[in-house]
Each structure stands twice: as structure tokens, then as C-alpha cells.
Amino acid sequence: MSAGEEKERISGDIPRSEATSSLQPMEVFEKPQAPVVAFHPAVYVAAWITMSSSVILFNKWILDTAGFRFPIILTTWHLAFGTLMTQILARTTTLLDGRKKVKMTGRVYLRAIMPIGLFFSLSLICGNLTYLYLSVAFIQMLKATTPVAVLLSSWVMGLAQPNLRVLFNISFIVAGVIIASFGEIKFVLIGVLFQLGGVVFEAIRLTLVESLLSSAEYKMDPLVSFYYFAPVCAIMNGLVSLVFEVPYIHMSDIARVGYFTLLANAMVAFGLNVCVVFLIGRTSAVIMTLCGVLKDILLVFASIMIWGTPVSALQYFGYSIALGGMIYYKLGAESIKSFFSELGRQWAEYGAKHPAQRKVVVFGLVILTIFAVLGGLAPTVGYDPGQIVMDGSKYWTSKDHTTNGS
């Protein structure tokens, strides 16, 4: 994936409560020590949504708009920067003190960290390659299949028993993504294959974490997890880039994007990991799941507004089905019902205390929805994945990279 997704990957996955389906493997994170200065949970959630979205949009801009067509090198740079920063934080702050509780040995590192790191690297590489071919909007739609891949992976590896009822529930996610794919105006097969490959590798990674690092002595918060995985992933990605990209990159390619831009990109990607550490334990699994869905929707609209990505009505319909299926699968009917019941009560209380402000909020949401719909129906500007497809056959050749470096 992207090093953005890196984001989501590098950051580690947000842990879910017991309400989450036990059939879905997930990373087991230990809650870090709460910071001395605490803000309202909404601040942490907003920071997470902002950082996570920024990583994805920033990566897309660098790899596509800015013409830095070296996704593996970009991922390696993120991981190398993350390795350096975690080493500094470990020696100067208490953010990584959780590593002292992890019984990490050479044997564990070879048998668990390295295999998991391998699939982590593959998922990041595939995720970043996808940005060369697909829009951010369509990528987010395809990523909705991640819970399905994780579930199937857990069945194959024997961590959970196949369940027809659960299979029926996740079928709505698959159906929605298929409908959205049929509605994609600029469908690029190689990009879809890269993204699905990234989803599969990520699912295997999560299942391996559940299988190999689920015991109490290996519980880690996302930043400690990144502390262990970043070095091995940086080396693996670096070796791949030595074969496919390093021989063709020139300093002019880096200078064209800008040294400061690449530094800022790595800082944003690493900042996401820190945000997740402060977020853990601040809110419920229900809120985090719904905020994750909100983030994906915002990314779709951001893609429309920034790159003029055309999104068809069939895609909106299919993606809505996929998101609905994902929420139901992750939370269950009772959690959803109780959440909206409580939300309705709080909204009524807010309206009684602040009627004028509630009207302003409703009006703003209506206006935002209108602009979002009109943006989706507007003609595309400035973005042509078809050109990427035409150049795709040249991507792995020295001629194309020589051109990039000239």
C-alpha cells in the first residue's frame, strides 16, 4: 500500500472491543500510558482522521501528480525515517517504554517479526503501486474488502471455524465492491490487481499477528509494533527497490519533487503512528469504526475535489452497500442499535439547549451534501488514469525511468 496506507498499516490497526467479531483476527495492542495533558476524545479522533487521510492524499500526489514514479523507494524512505524516529523517541521520551514489557528474543524476531514484516512490506509495495493506476476514490472502495480477506485468511489458517452466517454477512461487502467496480468509469485491471494483492497480504499479516504474537508477553501498542517492524520492512523494501527502481532513479527525480516535500511526507506518515498511540483507549470501538467509515467517505470526496475523479451513481450505490455491510459485520446489530439510540437522545438534548446552532449544523450538512453530489456528477478535470495505463508498460523499463531522470 501506500506508505499512507502505511498509515493505516504502519500505524497498526485500531484495536476493537469485545463487540468485534471473534472470527476476525486483529492485532493485539497494549494500551500505552495516558499522556499527562488530555484533550476531549473528539480532538484525538479528528487528528487521526486528518493524519490518516493526509498520508493517503500526500502519497497519491507525489506518485501521480508530482510524477515521482518510484513507489517502492518512497515506501522504503518512509520506513527508514520511521526507524530513525522510533530509535530517537525510545531514547528521549516515554512513548516507547512499552517495549520493555515485550519479551523479544532473537528466536521470536526470526520466527515472528520477520515473516510478519515480509507480508507488511508486500502490502505496502502493492498499496503504493496502486496509486500509479487508480484514483483515491476507487482505491478506498476496494479497501472495503479488507475485513473479508482477514476473515477468509483466519479460516484458511485454522484460527476460526467457517461460519455460514458470517459468510452471508460479509457477502454484502463483496457484492457492494463488485457493483462499485462495474460502475468505475476508468477501470484499470493492473491497478485493481495490485490493490487486491495489498489487501490479501495485509490480511495474512493480521492473521499471522493473531497467531504468532497474541500471547500476553507480546502485546504491543502500535508505536512499539512499528519500532520492531520498521527496520526489517525497510531492509526488505530496500532490497526490492534495488532491483526494480534504484537503477533508474536520478537525483533530478528527487529534486523535481523537492527534498522538503519528501521529508514532510515522511513526517506526516510517522505522525500518524504517534496519533494512534494517543487515540487508543480514548473512545469506543463503535465510534472508531464509524469514524473509519467517515474517513473513507471523506477521501472519496477529496479525490473528487482535488483530482476531479469521476464517480458514477452505480459506484455510490455499490460503495454504500459495502460500507453498510462492513459496519454490520464489525459491530453487530445490537451495538449499532444502541449507538444510534444514544445518538438520537443526545441530538435531541442538544437541539433543546441550542436550537439555533442545531439549525446551522443541519443547514451546513445539507449544503455539504449538495456540493459533494454535484462534484461527483461534474466532468473530470486534470486527471487521466488512461495515460498511466498507456505508460504502464514502460514503467518497469529503463527507457521510462531514464526519461523521468532526464
Describe this protein's structure:
By secondary structure, the protein is mainly alpha-helical. Helix content is 72%, strand content 0%. The protein contains 17 helices and no strands. It has helices spanning 5-10, 41-65, 71-92, 106-130, 136-143, 146-156, 164-183, 189-212, 222-244, 251-257, 259-279, 285-307, 313-331, 333-353, 355-377, 385-392, 398-405. Helix 2 packs parallel to helix 12 (285-307) and helix 7 (164-183) packs antiparallel against helix 13 (313-331). It is globular. The chain starts with a helix and ends with a helix. Residues 1-29 and 379-406 have low confidence and may be disordered.
Please provide a brief summary of the model.
This protein has about 400 residues and is mostly helical.
Put simply, the count of helices is 17
Flag low-confidence runs.
Answer: 1-29, 379-406
Supply the helix-strand structural class: mainly alpha
Write down the oligomeric state. single chain
Kindly state the mean pLDDT as a whole number? 81
The percentage helix is over 70%
Strand content: under 5%
